[in-house]
Amino acid sequence: MEKVERRLMEPISELGMEKTQQVVNRFFHRISSRIQLFLLHKGIIYGLIGFLLGRAIILSEVLPFALPFFGAVLLMKRDKALLAGLSLIAGGLTISFHVALVITISIIGFLILNRLVSSLFKDQLKVLPFVIFGTVAITRLAYSFSIKTELMLYDYMMAGVESGLSFILTLIFLQSIPLISARKYKQSLKVEEIICIMILLASVMTGLVGVSFQNLQAEHIFSRYIVLLFAFIGGSSIGCTVGVVTGLILSLANVGNLYHMSLLAFSGLLGGLLREGQKFGTAIGLLVGSVLISLYGQGSADLMTTLLESMIAILLFLLTPKVVTARLAKHIPGTNEHAQEQQQYVRKIRDVTAHRVEQFSQVFHALSESFATFYDKDEQDDSEERETDLFLSSITESTCQHCFKKEKCWVENFDKTYDLMQSIMHENKQNTYKSNMKLRKEFDRHCSKANKVEETIEQEINYFQANQKLKKEVQESRRLVAEQLLGVSNVMGDLSKEIKRERENHFVQEEQILDALQNFGIEIVNVDIFSLEQGNVDIEMSIPFCNGHGECEKIIAPMLSDILEESIIVKKEECANYPNGYCHVSFGSAKKYRIETGVAHAAKGGGLVSGDSYSMIDLGVGKFAVAISDGMGNGVRAHFESNETIKLLQKILQSGIEEKVAIKTINSILSLRTTDEIFSTLDLAIVDLQDGSSKFLKIGSTPSFVKRGDKIIKIQASNLPMGIIDDFDVDVVGEKLKAGDLLIMMSDGIFEGPKHVENHDLWMKRKISEMKTTDPQEIADLIMEEVIRTRSGKIEDDMTVVVSAIEHNTPKWASIPVSSKKIG
């Protein structure tokens, strides 16, 4: 009973924890949204920064921060400039009246000088640093002159330092202020931008100099908190960089803080290195850095003060919600959160692309439906009746309109007149009207203008038939275009599905393969699994420089074959060019079958140009195609027709369009391209190398033969050659091929070539069965030789024979057993 209660309580407690976590996340999200609204949209952030920058003084008397901040805010956030200016003056008042006076004079001088310069130069962004440089220099010299009445070299030097720093800080603030105010989607910060933000934050913290409580300095606490935050988020490099920049700015404000730069840099480095221990690991890094640098710099006198400052910074760091660190991490390259953001962005782009491709697929499908015209029998009969009525009405209009017997024929005897003229029309279509004396006599008795009507029908019937033929051709063309558009739609639909397919997470399998190979003594740098689908394995690895010894093919691929329990081969290998580099290797599934081909061909009369063309095509999806095309006749023109057929076939099949649509497309192209009676045959075999299933499409071609041991299988289909008619149905013959089969395909010059042979099928089967060799090239040569020998050495037609041997694809290297076999 207790076990049952415990089992019931566990999911309830987990559900309660999940709800609590959701409530906490929702609370922090609401609070952060309100803080963001209050600070950014209301402009309070500019008031806080301005107040602290108004207090920021370096080298005891230099004020380089105030005017650059005011100028940047005036240029980018003009509506917040007044608040920023008043905050700067208020911050200066907390130091002394003279500081506030200098800030006020510099702001007024800047506004006057900026108004004058803006009337001369349109690009204020480029001019702003120079305006601030001049304003600061004039203000500093004027203030020094009003106090001393005589300027010294030191005054000029300090004016140059302050104006130069102001010039640089203006450029930095122009970069950093938009980063803290703008809400960009997918914002990714560069290292330079992070440094600009750090300089801004360090400048703001300079305004905290002098703020203390029982020797605990505010700038020390907040600077260490910032270093902790960035070391935890960005690692040792970011943490060390932030420590150096922050410590440098603070040391300029107070020379006593010079050792603080080393403390922050070293703490940032240690905190970043220990961030695998989460927040506590980073905090330990800060404590160790604080203790070591304090003992080295100032001894044990201020050790407790330093430790207390560090502990307060750690407490603030531990109290920082995860929502804040996660949001900051999204903007820093190299973090997991940033990588996830990038993946989401890439996924969104992928989905948009897939959706766009799918939309194009739907467009092509809609176009296909609009072109497809399907007629049932009743609609066709109605159409024929309407066309007959229109034809007879045009004949009546030109012959019967002014006849005196019009009323008698078309009112009193409408049915008889209509039937007679319809009969004459059909007889003229078949060219049998002149021989039908009975119909001619009957019509002559019925019509007073029989000769004129007969002549008119005979003349118009040719135009009528031409119009009928044209309409039929248009309908067939529409249907063909519809099929082609549907094929393109299907290809684009498949492409959309492929784009949508995400790479599956195979982290566990990657670790298993990595451990198995490393336990065997092979050093592997990285393993990426893209697919573990049976027959479609896709794995990439990075290994140290192999010096061309072929370790991937000889060792790693056989081990993967044993681990994955299927034959794995090296698909692609990129070896490093130097000893310390890495080789990148791609592994994939080996096909179950492979095909070796042999070809023998000859032109008519031993010429150089044959009317036959052939091709072996790797379709790239585990399929292999063999094709022979025979152009009508011989010579250059026949070779051109057959070669064009093969090239079109190769391009269309490799695009992924179905075989039948490809054949019909080629037929339409050949039939529309020329008015000459030029056509070509096509013999196509497509073999699936994974299971051996094959498709045979024979367009006006001769039979093919499959030799399986002592058995000969004939493969044939009845299809007219391409280019003869516009519309034809393609018969597809299927056959399952096995290892050891020989597929013999030939043109009519080979099949019908033997002289004094009545049954070409039996002759060819007997010759193939008598051959003892299994080499495809030898079989092709022997068949060619036998045919030519029956013709007493004469070649009376173009001859081509292609022999394909289907064999098991045995890997070059045997599998190597591994202890950890099962991947799951």
Automatic annotation (TrEMBL):
The gene is spoIIE. The chain crosses the membrane at residues 44-70, 82-113, 125-143, 163-182, 194-213, 225-250, 257-274. The lineage of its organism: Bacteria, Bacillati, Bacillota, Bacilli, Bacillales. Keywords: Hydrolase, Membrane, Transmembrane, Transmembrane helix. It comes from the Bacteria. The keyword Transmembrane helix applies. SUPFAM superfamilies: PP2C-like. The keyword Membrane applies. This is Stage II sporulation protein E. NCBIfam families: spore_II_E. Its EC number is 3.1.3.16. PANTHER family: STAGE II SPORULATION PROTEIN E, STAGE II SPORULATION PROTEIN E-RELATED. GO terms for molecular function: protein serine/threonine phosphatase activity. InterPro entries: Bact_Sigma-Reg, PPM-type-like_dom_sf, PPM-type_phosphatase-like_dom, SpoII_E, SpoIIE_N. PROSITE patterns: PPM_2.
